[in-house]
Predict the structure.
Amino acid sequence: MLMLLDFRVRQRDFLLEISRAITAQLELSEVLRRVLNASVVMLGGQVGVITLRDSDGSYRVRATIGVESARVQTINERLQQIFTGEALDYDSLHEELGAVAALLDKRLKQPFALPLVFAGEPLGLLIVFRSHVATATPDDMQVLESFADQAAIAVHNAQLYERIDHERRRLAAILQHSADGVMILDAQARILSINHALERMTGWSATDAVGRDQDDVITWKKLERGDLKKALDDGWPFKNAADAPDSLYVEGDLLRRDGLTSSLGIVYSPLLTTEGRLSTIVANVRDITNFRQAQEMQNTFISTISHELKTPVALIKGHAATLRREDVEWDHEVVRDYSAVIEDEADRLAVLIDDLLTTSKLQAQRSLELNLDDVRLDQLVARAVERFSTQTTIHQFKLNFPPDFPVVQGDQQRLRQVLDNLLSNAIKYSPDGGPIEVGGMVDDKQVTIYVRDQGVGLTEGDQDRIFERFYRVDDALSRRTQGTGLGLFLAKAIIEAHGGSMRIDSQPGQGSTFYVTLPLQ
Ligand code: ADP
């Protein structure tokens, strides 16, 4: 009797110890391993299996002792039979467990199955097989059931933890791969994490940035709107906060770690503790450099176009008003000269309007319609040079074409527009005069026309941008020279519509050569 009591006390102690061990652990696979070990030891078994219910209701083996991995699939299939819906079918349970035991080892005689249930929800089944048969007393059963209850709590907690952990990793992956920059700050604006996009925007790696004050990483070259530190000092997010605290918008030019500059817009959103204290700040960062450039371009566009429209309109109005004066009798020559100015300026307006229409069409359809015909480029160039040489006395034109220059397929009028633009630029941007050479080269597949001046030239940065819509080099010469920044943009579009390409070779102060290459076919 004493011995039995002693055994019972030891069994309880063991159970307690095991329960503590399994409930202290949160990782599901480790919890299952401990539960299964304890069950096999307690029941004096040789083989153990835990099968858990998946979110789709099916049961899958998640931990084993004494089972070859090749057998797991068969056990999975067998055990599907023992559940009808949510409930355990005890008849087929008995039958299937017998079959599984025979499959695993002929010596296994007695299977034990303990349902793992938490708050009435079936979580899974704990199965132990042993090679001897022993009848369990009601006391034994009570101990086992209480163990199963503890195990179910541990499994339930571990599953919850697994789900939360999964959700946490999912959120982290979303943040990490978001195209927007994301930064998490503590209440003192110290960086807790930054994502890949923000690493790219700031030039800071997450390893270097984490732990620093956000002002070390977000260093403003020019702050245009808002200021996080100042807002925090002024009581943000609680100042003026009614129900939900407001987010804070900050915008400016960032000095990146690599010395480059980019424009950023940051929305800081506060997260509060349940007691209403500021716990975390989530910063959503957007690179608005392109947006700013587009805005700038729009402003430039409006000022350039209005200037370019105003000049001919003023000239036309002035000359027409002069001619209309009733107090003067104009002689024939004055009338002819003034009318010529009016006509020239009207032509200039027509070209400008045409360029604007083509540009807006290009933006809408991305390609240009061409009227293809045979074009003799050498002759087209010679005529253009003839026209332009009457407009300047300080430039000397030189033609350089090989004999029998081939005929190409092209849109004569559009190609003339390209040549006119290149020649007019060569004149405009070599204000001290000098030679302007226009030549041609041929190979098997293509012809190349070049226009070479010895003018002001272009920096590498400007060379990259002069084919952009409305782009004009920002210098004194451009400011006093008429132009819209559309000429080269349209020239490139026209040449590309022909299947050709444009390139430039230039150095500041050394002049520029523009090359136009067109396919022969
Ligand atoms: P624009 O109407 O201003 O001349 P373009 O598109 O033809 O417009 O040229 C864009 C800019 O490229 C010009 O404003 C000028 O700054 C620069 N550019 C064009 N051609 C030359 C050249 N031959 N030499 C130096 N700069 C040039």
User: Anything to note?
Assistant: DSSP finds 16 helices and 19 strands in the chain. The longest strand covers residues 261-272. The pocket of adenosine-5'-diphosphate is lined by residues 421, 425-426, 429, 453, 455-458, 466, 471-473, 478, 483-489, 512 (CB under 6 Å).
